[in-house]
Amino acid sequence: MNPKVSVIIPAYNTESYIGKAIESALEQTLTNIEVIIVDDGSSDKTVEIAKSFTDQRLKVIVNQQNLGAAAARNRAFRAAQGEWIAVLDSDDWYAPERLSKLVSLANKTNADMIADDVYLIKDGATSPWSTLIQESGERIDKILQIDIVYFVETDVYGEAGLHLGLSKPLFKREFLVKHGIEYDDEIRMGQDFWLDMKCLIKGARFFIEPKPYYFYRSRPGSLVYQSQLPRLNQSCKAAKYFMQQDVVKKNPALMRALSYNLAGYKKNLAYLQVVEPIKQGKWLTAFTEIRKYPGFFSDFMSRFNSIVERRIQYYVMNNKSSFDIYPNQQGKRKTTT
Questions:
Q1: Is 45 helix (H, G, I), strand (E, B) or coil?
Q2: What is the pLDDT of residues 23-43, one digit of tens each?
């Protein structure tokens, strides 16, 4: 008999964290599960720690070279046998009742995807500092179905919003197989958002439970702290791809939302192509990029107050979460209607 849920854990050099992730999966109150770890060419003791668990429900797959999180997750997708697929990052963890709660709700709502709110916790902290919904400004107090336009409109790079691309939904495996849906191997950052988009484009019924059961750890060295230029380039390419699809062209609200997102990606890309060389002391490169982006100084001034505020929060008020989760956040989204 196939497991109810396949928990997939892509891992890369997370020896300090992966034990907790595995334990949280194996200690779920829903016991009919399998846990598939795909190590993506780690050079530390990640594989050794993963293989130290003797639970028969655990499988460890090892990539001989680093292929990226998307490729690692796809390998786990193909090995999964569960009715549902749940993604768990190797430095995060689940509350014990997460899978039981979400599978039960998915059955009641006939969902193809179901997510929960997300606890936000800093590395080394003993308790979360907030949740995804609390930080979004959205008021969600009961199970809510997420339509594709709302999903895009509330997940704009650099702006406050719900950012469900950071959530970790459970996916009905039958739905993924039927529509041939996998991660895009070329997208190494922010790939969850675009996988969700693929599902929603195909008509997936997506629900969110406003209670948090997923613990999202922010830590130095994780992808959210790395250069955003690759992510922005990849996001521009992905947005353009979706905007060429007939189903999007026939949905004016969705086309407007994606167009707005694309404009945001391009603006932030142009801005960071100046800022990152400045931070690295590459002044000639920065000057060259400024010439390509004459609006840089006005863009910088529009961000100035938020830049100062974040630094005051971080350095003066000791609010170490001020740079977490939403890079270059500029405030609420303007309406696109």
A1: coil
A2: 999 999 999 999 999 999 999
Encoded tokens for 211: 């209670």
Other beta carbons within 10 angstroms of residue 150's beta carbon come to 18
For residue 7, the tally of other CB atoms under 10 A from its CB is 30
For the chain, give the longest Cα–Cα distance.
Answer: 63
For residue 148, what pLDDT band results from cuts at 50, 70 and 90? very high
Measuring CA to CA, how many Å separate 78 from each of 84, 171, 180, 199? 13, 13, 11, 17
Query: What are the angstrom distances between the C-alpha of 11 and each of 39, 73, 86, 163?
Result: 5, 9, 15, 23
Per DSSP, helices labelled H in the chain are 18-26, 46-51, 69-79, 98-109, 132-136, 148-153, 173-179, 191-201, 229-243, 246-249, 252-279, 283-292, 296-311
Quote the pTM value. Answer: 0.86
pLDDT over threshold 70, residue 311 = no
